[in-house]
């Protein structure tokens, strides 16, 4: 049983469900433009060993996509050991639980743009900047409710999701991939921000001259997933198993 909303999203089994995003710079740029973000550029990262030299630096936020078997191998055991995150600290990034179906791409995008450089790339007075101000003081479940109810996010996501290079699936179709975001925050702390986990995950600390696609940065961010990709038949960077987009201020 489903109900189609004016944006093309659907209510499926009582849950608002979107068309999945593609992980490519064109789609993310489309989404950023719709949300009045004009000081970020998005770059495909095609090589990791050695770290890329053909993209602008520093890259302090990453949008990462992994096929479901790779994601499960890298995170299923860890997820079951993490406590539920209920009380954000002032030094923590803004983390939002995902409650919208097939919206993990939007969640990864939001986790990156809301936290990169403390939200400095959001246009002052824009709907997204006002949303960030509202989210900061809220508990995680209230953040999820605000994002779930934000029509401007739904409209922007659904418009961007139709602009990918592959055929556009329906909201009711199975989604075999999962997105997450990585951000280098205060004091060089590296955060994995995934709305499907119990909370934000601190991965380690980088020095002032190290970004997320430095050797140390890649180890702290996608290292677990690349190891899982090598263990999953047919997985591996450069194939269909994972993809990575870096965010750079302009």
TrEMBL record:
First-tier enzyme category under EC: hydrolase
Signal found in the keyword field: no
PROSITE patterns per UniProt: UCH_DOMAIN
Record Gene3D superfamilies: Peptidase C12, ubiquitin carboxyl-terminal hydrolase (3.40.532.10)
EC numbers: 3.4.19.12
Reactions that this protein is recorded to catalyse: Thiol-dependent hydrolysis of ester, thioester, amide, peptide and isopeptide bonds formed by the C-terminal Gly of ubiquitin (a 76-residue protein attached to proteins as an intracellular targeting signal)
Source organism superkingdom: Eukaryota
Domain UCH catalytic: 17-249
Alphabetical keyword list: Hydrolase, Protease, Thiol protease, Ubl conjugation pathway
GO cellular component: cytoplasm
GO process annotations (BP): protein deubiquitination; ubiquitin-dependent protein catabolic process
Homology family: Belongs to the peptidase C12 family.
Protein's recorded name: Ubiquitin carboxyl-terminal hydrolase
